Amino acid sequence: MGLMESLARDLGGGEEPGAVQAVREAAFRRALAQGVPSPRDEDWRYTDLSSLSGQEFRAARAGRLDQNSLPLKDLDAWRLVFVNGRFAPSLSDLSALPAGITVRLLEEMSRQDPQWLAEHLSRQASPEARTFAALNAAAAPDGLHVEVAPGTQVEKPLLVIFATIGAGTPTLVSPHLHLQAGRHSRIELVELHLTQGAGSTLTNAHTRVDTGDGASVFHYRAVWEGSEGSHIGSVQINVGRDSRAENFSLVLSGRMVRVDIDGALAAPGGELKLNGVFVAGPNQHVDHHTRVDHAASHTTSDEVYKGIADGNGRGVFNGRVLVREGVEKVVATQASNNLLLSSDAEIDAKPELEIYANDLRCAHGATVGQLDDDSLFYLRSRGVPAVEARALLIYGFVQSLVESIPHPALQALVTARFAEANPSLAKLLAGDYT
Q1: Which of 19, 221, 243, 334 could connect to 303 by a Cys-Cys bridge, CB 3.0–4.6 Å?
Q2: Domain tally for the chain?
Q3: Domain finish residue from 226, 252, 267
Q4: Which H or E element spans position 332?
Q5: How far apart (Å, rounded) are the C-alpha atoms in residues 283 and 269?
Q6: Domain extent for 76
Q7: Rounded CA gap, 139 and 167, in Å?
Q8: What is the DSSP string of 134-190?
Q9: pLDDT digit string, tens, across residues 4-18
Q10: Distance in angstroms (rounded) separating the CA atoms of residues 198 and 194
């Protein structure tokens, strides 16, 4: 019995209204028909899921999480916490939420407005839906729908934490998040996925961001899975006319992590910026696939991803930019820069441009290299010990991107990952140069 067959035991037969159940069943049939992707599929040629597809996963049961173990306590934000896919009100803080933000839980909408929920989930059950997006629609027990009213300028971030508690047996969690930003609104969204406890876990997350005309959305998404935690995340960003969307993907840990980011620029004046930092340590695999679709003229996209692989870690970056026929005045840039810290590490970078128009400016590039010997020698010659010199250069490789994040608490989450792997760096970041 594999992944799909084992999950069939947990799906259906619930107390949801018939319209919702029908959509979930259709979504599962879609996922089952497509099957678990394999390296024979071009989009998955560098990522082998056979270790997952052969496991008997069960949908996560209710779990408990100690509030003291939650990260980002210093982030001044409204906070919503989900544990094993279900909303945890005791861990959340929505006090003084501004009037321009409406928060809906999918579990509540199943009772209050099942037709709305059925229509919402049906987008993920379409014939074009990918396997794991459809599976999320079928299996997500709860989730979050956030609406920002037109003209609302949200003063501080909305923090959404999806926590998974390992139960010792293979466990599936299906986080679900949708943000609808109204015309000329502005919001910052921080999305964090983390795992605690023992055992194999699979987080199958789906996030959708829709920006109304003239809106601005800043989305920071961090993945910090456990040593036996796998993560498959799909992010869909639809950019409206004269609107701006930014996504920053931070993958800090996980046995196997795959993040698909799809950006659609379907109206003139849209801007999309994608940044990413990922770390693939020993026995870890991190795969980013981005797809940016310039379907309208006068649109702009910019991507900068930096990856680090150590030990036998492996990283993947595949970025595809599509400029459709008849589209004019497009600017699209893409850069993938990667650092290998051992002879066994590997990073595969594959930038792609697919262009069917002429009046545009597009550029892409990829680099894969090791620490610079001259820079190491320079630091050593000025009295910096070898271990500390190496740590400084590693962190310096991603520092400019990390420091572009406007929230110190979120920056600290990233630097903590580097400090965890290198105690010498922790001392230096704390200002201890002894």
Answers
A1: 334
A2: 2
A3: 267
A4: strand 330-340
A5: 43
A6: 3-267
A7: 18
A8: HHHHHH-S--EEEEE-TT-B-SSPEEEEEEEEEESS-EEE--EEEEEEPTT-EEEEE
A9: 777 776 665 567 888
A10: 13
